[in-house]
């Protein structure tokens, strides 16, 4: 077997320094970037640790026993996260997703959820407060998450076949425990559970049809995600991507007719389909073959408080430095810094990648923007 060279940069060192503007303005919830995209979603990574070693996210070759995780004092505290989240909500964020790493590994995560559940949008509405988990601790924690105020949960599951799943998580974790977590989450009211499957050609694409069949029967919303070139550690190649159109074709060819349905809202990442003869819903997240940057309303806050305006960003903005500055910046001052960052945002990485890999489709070559240094998904959250 040939050895694969995995380039790894310590992306955590890259951050721009931020200055407080002279003229401060109160937020009006109407922030827009250079492409007229509002700020509606905030994904907050609460830990850079995970108990799985999925090959596309935290491969063992990189995240081994010597890997240096962030020390605890570098992580944003729950109070700091709450303070920043309330500022983002004032700018128009109405949906917060907790990610990681594996967010359920963060000690007392329920306390953070309870703090965030108390936030209200400027017009007094509750937030859509969700969490993405690998499901390993879900059966144990679902009730306390619900009690703390979590609205919904998404579970990553890449295969139903136990051997394939154990191979993909690379820590020998069984499918049955994740399925139990999904069942408990539904039972305590964290549904409808969304199940996210990253499809990688030659690794788990044979699981597309069994997954579609199983979750049609069980009523959860299964979402297929095209394998993406996030970070620098997964050695992504275009030929490993199964396009969403092919996924739909395979499901229909297996005797499960599908009908496209309307998006719930404009910036929804998944294209929705429904089983024609069974009611259950499916989603396709086609970041590679049908980029959706033009509707991207998401900001990401890393575990140590850096703000990223794109999943494929190379540089973050160090909000923690503002929170911990000795001259005690006011919420209004930090509000204006965040507004300034969003107003300058012009990210559209996936659209640019589509233009390039479209030309090179099938060659597996990485060109131009796909070779620049990017942050790891385990650090920024997916
Ligand atoms: S590539 Fe960046 S801008 Fe485009 S959809 Fe993804 S996160 Fe948003």
Summarize the topology:
Blueprint: E1 15-16, E2 41-45, H1 78-90, E3 95-99, H2 109-117, E4 128-133, H3 138-148, E5 154-156, H4 162-169, H5 175-188, E6 194-199, H6 208-218, E7 221-226, H7 244-253, E8 258-260, E9 271-275, E10 281-285, E11 298-301, E12 306-308, E13 316-318, H8 319-323, H9 331-344, H10 349-360, H11 377-380
Helix pairs in contact: 1-2, 1-9, 2-3, 3-5
The structure holds iron/sulfur cluster.
Question: CATH superfamily name?
Answer: Aldolase class I
Instruction: Provide the list of bound ligands, each named once.
Output: iron/sulfur cluster
Number of helical segments? Answer: 11
Estimate the global geometry from the Cα principal axes: globular
Poorly predicted regions: 1-10, 359-370
Q: What is the β-strand count? A: 13
Query: What is the CATH architecture term?
Result: Alpha-Beta Barrel
Note down, in words, how this protein is organized:
The chain is of the alpha/beta class and 382 residues long. The protein has a single domain, classed as Aldolase class I (TIM Barrel, Alpha-Beta Barrel), CATH 3.20.20. Helices cover 29% and strands 15% of the residues. Strands 1-13-12-11-2-3-4-5-6-7-10-9-8 form a 13-stranded mixed β-sheet. Strand 12 and strand 13 form a beta hairpin. Helix 1 runs parallel beside helix 2, helix 2 packs parallel to helix 3 and helix 3 runs parallel beside helix 5. The longest helix is centred in the middle third of the chain and has 14 residues. The radius of gyration is 20 Å and the shape is globular. The structure holds iron/sulfur cluster. InterPro entries: Aldolase_TIM, Elp3/MiaA/NifB-like_rSAM, MoaA, MoaA-like, MoaA_NifB_PqqE_Fe-S-bd_CS, MoaA_twitch, MoCo_biosynth_MoaA/MoaC, rSAM. It catalyses: GTP + AH2 + S-adenosyl-L-methionine = (8S)-3',8-cyclo-7,8-dihydroguanosine 5'-triphosphate + 5'-deoxyadenosine + L-methionine + A + H(+).
């Amino acid at each position: 077997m040939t050895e694969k060279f995995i380039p790894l940069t310590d992306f955590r060192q890259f951050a721009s320094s931020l200055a407080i503007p002279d003229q401060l303005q109160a937020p009006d919830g109407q922030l827009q970037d250079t492409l007229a995209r509002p700020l509606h979603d905030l994904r907050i990574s609460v830990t850079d640790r995970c108990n799985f070693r999925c090959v596309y996210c935290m491969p063992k070759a990189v995240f081994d026993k010597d890997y240096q995780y962030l020390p605890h004092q570098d992580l944003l505290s729950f109070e700091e996260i709450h303070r920043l989240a309330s500022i983002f909500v004032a700018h128009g964020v109405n949906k917060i997703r907790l990610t990681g790493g594996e967010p359920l590994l963060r000690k007392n995560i329920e306390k953070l959820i309870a703090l965030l559940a108390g936030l209200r949008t400027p017009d007094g509405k509750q937030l859509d407060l969700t969490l993405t988990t690998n499901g390993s601790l879900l059966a144990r924690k679902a009730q306390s998450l619900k009690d703390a105020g979590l609205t919904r949960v998404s579970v990553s599951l890449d295969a139903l076949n136990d051997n394939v799943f154990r191979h993909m998580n690379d820590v020998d974790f069984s499918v049955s425990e994740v399925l139990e977590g999904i069942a408990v989450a539904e039972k305590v009211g964290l549904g409808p559970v969304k199940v996210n499957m990253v499809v990688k050609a030659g690794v788990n694409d044979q699981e597309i049809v069994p997954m579609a069949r199983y979750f049609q029967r069980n009523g959860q919303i299964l979402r297929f995600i095209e394998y993406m070139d996030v970070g620098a550690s997964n050695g992504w190649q275009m030929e490993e991507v199964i396009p969403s159109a092919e996924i739909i074709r395979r499901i229909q060819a297996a005797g499960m007719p599908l009908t496209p349905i309307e998006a719930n809202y404009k910036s929804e990442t998944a294209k929705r389909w429904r089983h024609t003869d069974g009611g259950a819903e499916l989603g396709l997240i086609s970041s590679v073959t049908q980029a959706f940057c033009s509707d991207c309303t998401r900001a990401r806050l890393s575990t140590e408080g850096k703000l990223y305006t794109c999943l494929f960003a190379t540089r973050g903005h160090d909000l923690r430095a503002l929170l911990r500055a000795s001259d005690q910046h006011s919420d209004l001052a930090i509000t204006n810094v965040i507004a300034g960052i969003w107003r300058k945002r012009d990210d559209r990485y996936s659209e640019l990648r589509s233009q390039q890999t479209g030309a090179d489709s099938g060659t597996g070559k990485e060109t131009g923007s796909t070779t620049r240094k990017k942050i790891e998904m385990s650090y920024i959250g997916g």
